[in-house]
Amino acid sequence: MKVGVLALQGAFAAHLGALEQVGASAVEVRTESQLADVDRLIVPGGESTTISMMLERSALVEPLRAFVRSGRPVFGTCAGAILLSSRIVGGRSDQLCFGALPLSASRNAFGRQRESFEADLAVRGLDDGDFHAVFIRAPRLEVIEPDPPGVDRPTVEVLAEIDGSPALVRSGAVMCATFHPELGGDTRVHSMFCEM
Questions:
Q1: pLDDT (mean) for 34-46
Q2: Whole-structure pTM over 0.85, yes or no?
Q3: What is the spatial distance between Cα 137 and Cα 78, in angstroms, rounded to a whole number?
Q4: H-type alpha helices, 23-60
Q5: DSSP 181
Q6: Which spans in the chain are helix H?
Q7: Which domains, ranges and CATH numbers included, belong to the chain?
Q8: Distance in angstroms (rounded) separating the CA atoms of residues 167 and 158
Q9: What average pLDDT does the segment 22-42 reach?
């Protein structure tokens, strides 16, 4: 199994290190051919509008959209969760979101850089105690209510919460976190993603 990490901006190197610690073959993804060569993908944190612009400059918007729709596992952390959401609150009007999950993402909802914080989270599926999570300019996620009956929408499973809002969610092959699992030294969330 080859795990790609989108390496345009953000903490992609820390994700690569965490993946290697859990025994995954991890590679940087910067081009369409590199994206086509991976089995699963992490879209890391960083600055979501900057990542959007870099995706456009790298001609990766449509290949990434196709990857997300292909059913291959995708994990978005912080800015990556914003990009995988269906609606962005507080973003630019031209900012990308891929609609991988029925989520609304509010940018910087927990404050700016100086309000960054760490917290211990109870995560469903992790048996060895709480997960120490690092939140940097974290978004707030909200699950968008389902459409009227008869419309098929993915069910979102909330795996962890912070202050009453989802901090880690999963639906099918897609997982999103508002925190940075690559920065805390605990690789269990990366293992969870690799086992999906």
A1: 95
A2: yes
A3: 8
A4: 32-36, 48-57
A5: T
A6: 12-21, 32-36, 48-57, 61-69, 79-84, 188-195
A7: 2-195 (3.40.50.880)
A8: 8
A9: 97
Amino acid symbol at 3: V
Tokens 């456009």 -> residue: 56
Kindly tell me if the per-residue pLDDT of 147 is higher than 60: no
Buried b (16+ CB within 10 A) or exposed e, 159-186: bbbbeebbbbbbbebbbbbbbbbbbbeb
Window from 113-117, 133-137, 155-159 with minimum mean pLDDT: 113-117
First to last CA, the chain: 12
Q: What's the distance, CA 47 to chain centroid? A: 13
Question: Which are the catalytic amino acids?
Answer: 78, 180, 182
φ and ψ at residue 16, rounded to 5 degrees: -60, -45
